[in-house]
Design goal:
12 helices; globular; 2 domains; nine-stranded mixed beta sheet; alpha/beta; disordered N terminus
C-alpha cells in the first residue's frame, strides 16, 4: 500500500507506549502476582521498566506507560515523570493496544506514530536505529508495522514472523532507504524442528514491538474482533468501557489485529534482543557481552562464594543478590534475593529462592514454569 502523505518521521510526533500490565510468570518465584517481572532489578540497579522507558526517551517525543490500577503506585515509584494510563482489565496486548491508541488519538490533534513496546525485555546495540526505521515506515505508509529480529538460534520460546518474498523501501529524512516487507503470517512458538525450518525460510523472531498511526490502526480494528470494543471506547463512558473490557476475550495484538489485515509491514533488524522470558535465558545473558551495551551488569568469573548480579561460578550462572557454593556440579542457574545457596552433585538445574518461595526445575523444563504458575493460581497461592 502506498503512502498517502509525504510526512517525514522526524516531522511527525512519535509517542512511545510501554505495556506494563503483565506478570512475567515464567520468572516465578522472583515474579509474583504482586511483584511483576517489569519491576524487578535482576541485574544492576535498574528494573526492566526503567531501562525500557530510558531507551524510548531517546527515540520518541513523549512516553506513556499502560498498566493496571494495582500497579500504578509501583510504576510511579520507579518512573515518576511519565504519564500513566490504566486499562480497565487485563485482556492481553490486543485490547491494551487499542485502549492506548485511543488515548493517544484523543491527546494529540495530529496523527502521531504510536511506538508500542513491552516493558520487560533486554535490548542492546541497534535499538535506536531499529525504532527510527519502524517509525519512518509507519509515518510514510498506511501500514501497521512490526519489528522482525534476525534469529541467531532455533528458539522455541519465541513467535516467528513470516515475511512476503518481495521487499519495499521508503526514504528516511537523511535520504537512506528503509527496507520493509509485507507480513505473510505469524507463527506461534514452534517445536525445535519447525524452528529450524523457520530460520532456513528466512522468518524473523517476533519481538512484540509495533508502530502505527492511529488513523491506520483504527481503520484496521473496525474490521477486526476488537471492533465492538472500539465502538465503546469512542463513546467513552467509564462504566461502558469497563463493562466492554470485562466482556472482551484476551487476544494478542498479532492475532486480533495484524492477522486481520493485509496492510502490515515488518522491518527487519539485527538488533541485539532477548525477552528473558524464562530462567534459562540467563545462560545467554551471562555470555553475551554485546547484549548489555553498557547497561546490563554481566560478567563471567570462576570460583566459589562469588557474589554478583549475574556471574558464572564453576559453569553455574548466579542471578541476583545471592552467595553460591557449588561442589561437583555444573551447568546450573542459581538465583536469589539474599542469603546463601549450596548445590552439591547436581547439574543442569534451575534453583531459585526468592523471599519465602523456592523453585527447583530441570533447565530443559524452564518453559514449564508457566504450567506451575497456573496450578498455583488455581490454589490461590501465586
Amino acid at each position: 500500500m502506498e503512502a498517502t502523505n509525504d510526512v517525514d518521521s522526524t516531522a511527525t510526533n512519535i509517542v512511545g507506549v510501554v505495556l506494563a500490565g503483565g506478570i512475567g510468570s515464567r520468572l516465578y518465584p522472583a515474579s509474583r502476582g504482586h511483584r511483576p517481572k517489569q519491576f524487578l532489578s535482576l541485574f544492576g540497579n535498574r528494573s526492566f521498566l526503567t531501562r525500557t522507558v530510558d531507551r524510548l526517551r531517546g527515540v520518541t517525543d513523549s512516553v506513556f506507560i499502560l498498566t493496571r490500577d494495582e500497579f500504578v503506585e509501583a510504576v510511579t515509584e520507579q518512573v515518576s515523570d511519565v504519564t500513566v494510563i490504566t486499562e480497565p482489565a487485563r485482556r492481553d496486548t490486543g485490547p491494551a493496544a487499542l485502549y492506548a491508541t485511543q488515548h493517544i488519538r484523543k491527546t494529540y490533534d495530529t496523527d502521531p506514530v504510536v511506538l508500542l513496546a513491552p516493558s520487560d525485555h533486554v535490548v542492546g546495540a541497534g535499538f535506536d536505529t531499529a525504532m527510527k526505521r519502524m517509525s519512518t515506515v509507519a509515518a510514510k505508509t498506511d501500514r501497521l508495522v512490526t519489528l522482525g529480529i534476525t534469529p541467531t538460534r532455533p528458539e522455541t520460546g519465541y513467535g516467528y514472523i513470516e515475511p512476503a518474498e518481495s521487499s519495499n523501501t521508503v526514504d528516511n529524512i537523511n535520504g537512506d532507504a528503509v527496507s520493509w516487507q509485507s507480513v505473510h503470517s505469524f507463527h506461534e512458538k514452534p517445536k525445535p524442528e519447525m524452528a529450524e525450518q523457520y530460520i532456513e525460510a528466512g522468518h524473523y523472531w517476533n519481538a512484540g514491538i509495533f508502530a502505527w498511526r492511529p488513523t491506520v490502526f483504527n481503520a484496521v480494528v473496525a474490521d477486526s474482533p476488537l471492533a465492538s470494543l472500539q465502538v465503546v471506547l469512542r463513546d467513552d463512558t467509564d462504566k461502558s468501557v469497563a463493562d466492554a473490557f470485562a466482556a472482551s476475550d484476551s487476544q494478542s495484538v498479532d492475532r486480533a489485529i495484524f492477522e486481520q489485515s493485509e496492510a502490515t509491514a515488518v522491518v527487519p533488524t539485527e538488533m541485539i534482543w532477548d525477552d528473558i522470558g524464562t530462567w534459562d535465558a540467563f545462560d545467554r545473558l551471562a555470555t553475551q557481552d554485546e547484549l548489555t551495551d553498557g547497561t546490563v551488569d554481566t560478567q563471567a568469573v570462576s570460583g566459589h562464594n562469588k557474589q554478583s548480579n549475574t556471574t558464572t561460578c564453576e559453569e553455574t550462572v548466579t542471578v541476583g543478590d545471592v552467595e553460591v557454593q557449588v561442589i561437583d556440579g555444573t551447568d546450573n542457574i542459581i538465583a536469589g534475593n539474599g542469603g546463601h545457596i549450596s548445590a552439591v552433585g547436581v547439574s543442569g538445574l534451575i534453583i531459585v529462592t526468592w523471599d519465602d518461595r523456592t523453585l527447583v526445575i530441570d533447565k530443559d523444563e524452564a518453559q514449564s514454569v508457566r504450567t506451575l504458575v497456573s496450578k498455583l493460581r488455581e490454589n490461590g497461592v501465586f
